[in-house]
Amino acid sequence: MPKSIAIIGITGNQGSSVALHYLSLNSAAIQSGDAPPYIICGLTRNPASPVAIHLKSQSVEIVKADLDDASMLISTLKGANLIFSVTNYWEPFFRPDCRVKAKQLGVSPRKYAYDVEYAQGRNIADAAAATVDTLDDNGFIVSTLSHATQCSNGKYRELYHFDAKADVFPELASLCTASASRRGYIFEDLGIGVSRRVSPRTLI
Ligand SMILES: NC(=O)c1ccc[n+]([C@@H]2O[C@H](COP(=O)([O-])OP(=O)(O)OC[C@H]3O[C@@H](n4cnc5c(N)ncnc54)[C@H](OP(=O)(O)O)[C@@H]3O)[C@@H](O)[C@H]2O)c1
User: Does the UniProt entry include the keyword Mitochondrion (predicted)?
Assistant: First the structure.
């Protein structure tokens, strides 16, 4: 029976590399005359993007989903044996419409992005908890960072892109078995800022 792998952020740097790993395992099995051991499902807001279309052509099941939509996530992740997830700080930080919303709410763009990322993390955690019976041991993988405020004893209180990810974890631990992958700075970021995507180049 093949295992079901759900990848949040499959069109991005981290998610696409996870997809490539499982695709290579499937290819190896097929070359040996075996059935592919994994059904790979990728979540994206835009199934019509070039990366999503390319992944679909590689037998990845592409599903339209938004991390802001809690009930959609629960139904999309139902039955998964493994979930890989990322959350998104930089998009709500940079997007012009989010800047407008932050201003309307009277919060800084950083705090606004923290709130969005934290809410997305909660939605992911709730959806994983809703399917905990089908998850493998350590089958919920979360890309995260350390808690900057706590690690600096309160010296650095506005590294919201660290703290949002870390703040979801105390809640995760009580919901289901999870593994946290603390990513280092990804090489492609060097010199070009944090928001460039390399996946279209590396995948297509
Ligand atoms: N790059 C690094 O060095 C690094 C290091 C540590 C931690 N991180 C963190 O890890 C996260 C992901 O990093 P990355 O480099 O893989 O990012 P990325 O290349 O920008 O990809 C972001 C992914 O998230 C998806 N996504 C964003 N908002 C979404 C939403 N509302 N609903 C559904 N999917 C959404 C995007 O999918 P669609 O656009 O297709 O919907 C895309 O696949 C970021 O939060 C970043 O802060 C990054």
Answer: no
